[in-house]
Write a structure and sequence with these properties.
This protein is mainly α. It has 10 helices and 2 strands. The protein folds into 2 domains: 83 residues, Helix Hairpins; 154 residues, no CATH class. 72% of the residues lie in helices and 1% in strands. It has a two-stranded parallel sheet with strand order 1-2. The chain is elongated and about 80 Å long.
Length: 269
């Protein structure tokens, strides 16, 4: 049975990121297109591609690990080996080894899924917070900034800058992890490298963000104008009857606070 870990030159405990990195390095080195169509290199490349196909998929990797473990123990050290002995104590020992290894496999899968879930949440929470905050700001039209003293305005501007930087960073991380650019995808195919599998195009993701923000803004304005909130007239120091440019301050600040609360809550899970 081929040892795909040896083929990719990684440890059995390697993370998905380490496996992907090892695959890319070896693929560039052994790809037939960069080796003049050499048959040996082509065969080596096919093994590397197959190894990554198995180890790069958490479920496939777990099944492969089980088979590899069984093969290693069933063929180890001949008939008198504790790995192949039918002695009840040897069988019990083998069962304990299997269970321990299987638990390691499951723990690794859970850890990988948790990391992926956390990465996805770091994109979803700020995006949803941006849309919802834009909607509510358009409905209620807060005027905290306009009616604040100079120290309040300084605080608002500072929070806005921090929130905007934080929002841009979160969106950039999401773009890098979940979106691809058409020209980069095209180039990666031409130069013989395996393109990363990402679910969305960069253009589609940017369009979704822009359209979603403007749709929430439009819906908020329609709702606010339809109900003509009396609260804006009764508490003019907090809410404004008309839309003001300070609208742009609030969504990044709200996103910042929502993300901070989510990060704190995640630490207690």
């Amino acid at each position: 049975m081929l040892n795909y870990y040896d083929i990719l030159k990684v440890s059995k405990k390697a993370s998905n990121a380490e496996i992907k990195s090892a695959y890319r390095k070896l693929a560039r080195k052994h790809h037939p297109d960069v080796n003049g169509g050499d048959e040996e290199k082509a065969l080596e490349f096919s093994k590397i591609a197959k190894a990554y196909e198995i180890l790069g998929n958490p479920k496939e990797r777990a099944e492969y690990d089980k088979k590899l473990l069984q093969t290693q123990y069933s063929t180890s050290n001949g008939e008198n080996s504790v790995f192949t002995s039918e002695n009840p104590h040897a069988r019990r020992w083998r069962q304990m080894v299997y269970e321990r290894r299987y638990n390691e496999i499951i723990d690794r899968m859970i850890a990988d899924e948790r990391r992926e879930s956390m990465a996805l949440q770091k994109v979803i929470f700020p995006t949803v917070a941006l849309f919802v905050s834009t909607l509510f700001v358009a409905i209620f039209r807060p005027a905290f900034f306009t009616n604040s003293a100079i120290i309040g305005k300084i605080i608002f501007v500072s929070l806005f800058i921090v929130g905007l930087i934080h929002l841009i960073r979160r969106l950039r991380e999401g773009f890098e992890r979940y979106t691809y650019q058409e020209e980069i995808l095209h180039d990666s195919i031409l130069d013989g490298n395996e393109p990363e599998e990402k679910p969305y195009s960069r253009v589609a993701a940017i369009s979704f963000l822009i359209i979603g923000t403007f749709v929430c803004l439009g819906i908020g304005l329609l709702i606010g104008n339809y109900f003509d909130f009396a609260i804006a007239r009764t508490i003019p120091s907090i809410f404004s009857p008309t839309l003001k440019p300070e609208l742009v301050f609030y969504p990044p600040i709200i996103v910042l606070f929502v993300d901070i609360m989510h990060s704190v809550a995640a630490k207690f899970e």
